[in-house]
Design goal:
The complex is a heterodimer.
Chain A (H helix, E strand, L loop, with lengths): L21 H37 L5 H4 L2 H14 L2 H32 L1 H16 L6 H35 L3 H9 L4 H12 L1 H26 L4 H10 L3 H29 L4
Chain B lengths: L9 E11 L4 E12 L4 E5 L6 H9 L6 E6 L2 E2 L7 E4 L11 H5 L1 H5 L4 H14 L15 H13 L5 E5 L7 H17 L3 E5 L3 H7 L2 E5 L6 E6 L12 H4 L3 H14 L5
Parallel strand pairs in B: 3-8, 3-9, 6-7, 7-8
Antiparallel strand pairs in B: 1-2, 1-4, 4-5, 9-10
Helix pairs in contact in B: 5-6, 7-9
Classes of the chains: A mainly alpha, B alpha/beta.
The structure holds adenosine-5'-diphosphate (ADP) and magnesium ion.
Magnesium ion (MG) binds next to helix 1 of chain B.
Chain lengths: ~280, ~260
């Protein structure tokens, strides 16, 4: 006697492409609930932060002259927009950040390649790189200002803050490239340049991405510090000028714009990373 | 007995190799004399650290002998050559390249015509049952498939000498047996000269025409054993059949004691 046919099941225990199992659906909706909770809590935190700040300053629990408060910052921002200078200041700073970032990345990368290609030079220079890297670059701001003047000194400080990270981290990455891959390429008789372009550089693409992420932040810090010293324009200038004239609303508005720029540059790198994702 | 010197595809003549480091000097190979005929498949066995990999590196021209000569077709080896294909223990596939582009690596380095190289690569992938994976990336492949890609990458330059350094040791036992059989028959059917290093005695016997035993460091040629199967007549049995023969069992016992298998 043939076995009785199995009863049709409208709730298979396992997901099978077309229909999702009940357990899986429950799990998914629990996940969705969790993520709604997380987002709601995040929004609540931000709202509370601004509310407490506003209320505390308005009731003089804190001195608004020192802390300012959200509505005053917004008013200060509008005033700066109306005066018509803000966009110019933002552009000056953005250009400085982008140029310093690109310059320090390219030069740092080129130096790392040079030192990797010439191990003898690497050995000679290694202790000096360690020493120069150990100098707090911010301490050099006045010196660069005297040597290079108000504009170039900003680039110089931003590049010198970030270039060593690029150089040191990339070189370390190059030197740690999988020796088996290098041996394999050598069995094909590749030249040093081919080793670089076909093995070492592509293998270190992930290193480069993480270096870029760090470098963006450092370039920004370098540019603002440079502007504190010398600039006649830029967000760093707005911040020092605002603080000297005790306009905390404008200072905080400028810092907020900086934070927004920083977030944008970070996401630009993440987008770049995604574009390269097919390699990883 | 072993052919030596003249008339050999590959020959080591009184080769010594010392490694130098600031801390010490390592005498890795001592007075190696060894010849391999064209089309012959030899395996080299010996304890770990006895200089097996070093022997292959010398032949490939990655390092130069401290003393003595390494000859291919009678001419001293000066550096890596297209005619030698080297298969390493790790497949070392480049994870940022597709299977096809991995196979084309050697052709690219040698600046060969891309269209012809690509045709060869595709034919090899077809042959090694990898055609449908040519646009996949290494992380999507199993260990056995990755090692077959590595073989295709080696074969794509059409070398006439193959060096294999424990090519199966990273694989699971089962895959290892079938892949060893498959690769042995590929190499044999293409009449390549092959030198394979292994620490697996069974693999050494089942794949080779001759097994060379190196002594513990400094490595010397301690003994050589031809692998022949009078019980099966003149035809070369497949590696799988070899393991069933009485000759295999006898040679296994001899090699085991020759290597010093008891001192693990
Ligand atoms: N680049 C190197 N520098 C110094 N010593 C090495 C180097 N490569 C190998 N050796 C030493 O030489 C000996 C032989 O190494 P190897 O040929 O790799 O042995 P095997 O492949 O038989 O295990 C070992 O003792 C090893 O430590
Ligand atoms: Mg070895």
């Amino acid at each position: 006697m043939p076995p009785p046919p199995l009863p049709p099941s409208d709730a298979p225990p396992l997901a099978d492409g077309a229909g999702l199992s009940r357990a899986y659906r429950l799990w998914l909706s629990a996940q969705r609930r969790d993520s709604v909770t997380v987002h709601a809590a995040q929004v609540l935190l931000v709202v509370m932060f601004f509310a407490v700040w506003e209320v505390a300053a308005r009731n003089l629990w804190v001195n608004p002259l020192f802390t300012s408060y959200p509505s005053a910052v917004w008013a200060g921002f509008q005033a700066m927009v109306i005066e018509g200078e803000l966009l110019h200041h933002v552009l000056v700073t953005v250009v400085e950040i982008v140029v310093s970032f690109v310059l320090s990345t390219l030069v740092g990368l080129a130096l790392a390649v040079l030192l990797w290609l010439t191990p003898m030079l690497n050995r000679i220079l290694a202790p000096f790189i360690v020493v120069v890297n150990a100098i707090p670059k911010i301490a050099l701001v006045p010196i660069f200002y005297i040597w290079l003047g108000p504009v170039l000194s900003i680039y110089m400080i931003a590049v010198s803050v970030s270039i060593f990270i690029v150089l040191i981290v990339m070189l370390a990455g190059f030197e740690q490239t999988d020796p088996n891959k290098i041996k394999l390429a050598r069995t094909f008789g590749c030249t040093q340049w081919q080793l670089l372009s076909k093995v070492v550089l592509p293998a270190n693409l992930p290193t480069l991405i993480s270096v870029l992420k760090g470098n963006v932040g450092l370039s920004l810090v370098g540019v603002i510090v440079g502007e504190f010293q010398s600039a006649k324009a830029g967000l760093g200038y707005l911040i020092t000028y605002g603080s000297q004239t005790f306009q905390m609303d404008r200072v905080i508005a400028s810092v907020t714009i900086l934070a927004i720029i920083s977030v944008f540059t970070y996401f630009a790198i993440v987008a770049f990373e995604k574009a390269l994702a097919r390699y990883a | 007995m072993a052919p030596s010197g003249a008339g050999c595809k590959v020959a080591f003549e009184n080769v010594h190799l010392h490694y130098f480091s600031p801390a010490n000097e390592t005498h890795a190979l001592s007075d190696i004399n060894l010849g391999v005929r064209a089309g012959e498949f030899i395996t080299i066995v010996g304890q770990s650290g006895c200089g097996k990999s070093t022997l292959l590196s010398l032949l490939c021209g990655l390092i130069a002998p401290t003393q003595g000569r390494v000859l291919i077709d009678g001419a001293p080896v000066t550096g890596p050559s297209r005619r030698i294909g080297f298969m390493l223990q790790h497949d070392s596939l480049f994870e940022w390249r597709s299977v096809l582009d991995n196979v084309l690596l050697g052709a690219e380095i040698h600046g060969q015509d891309p269209a012809q190289a690509r045709a060869r690569a595709e034919a090899l992938l077809e042959r090694y049952r990898l055609a449908e994976f040519k646009h996949h990336y290494p992380r999507q492949l199993s260990g056995g498939m990755r090692q077959r890609v590595a073989l295709a990458r080696t074969m794509c330059l059409e070398p006439d000498i193959l060096l294999l350094d424990e090519p199966f040791s990273a694989l699971d036992f089962q895959i290892r047996l079938s892949l060893a059989d498959e690769i042995a028959s590929i190499i044999r059917s293409e009449r390549k000269t092959a030198i394979m290093v292994t620490h697996d005695i069974s693999e050494a016997i089942s794949m080779a025409d001759r097994v060379v035993v190196l002594s513990a460091r400094p490595g010397r040629v301690k003994a050589e054993y031809p692998v022949v199967f009078p019980s099966l007549g003149s035809a070369r049995p497949s590696p799988f059949e070899v393991r069933e023969t009485p000759e295999y069992r006898e040679l296994f016992r001899v090699l085991w004691s020759s290597i010093g298998g008891h001192q693990v």
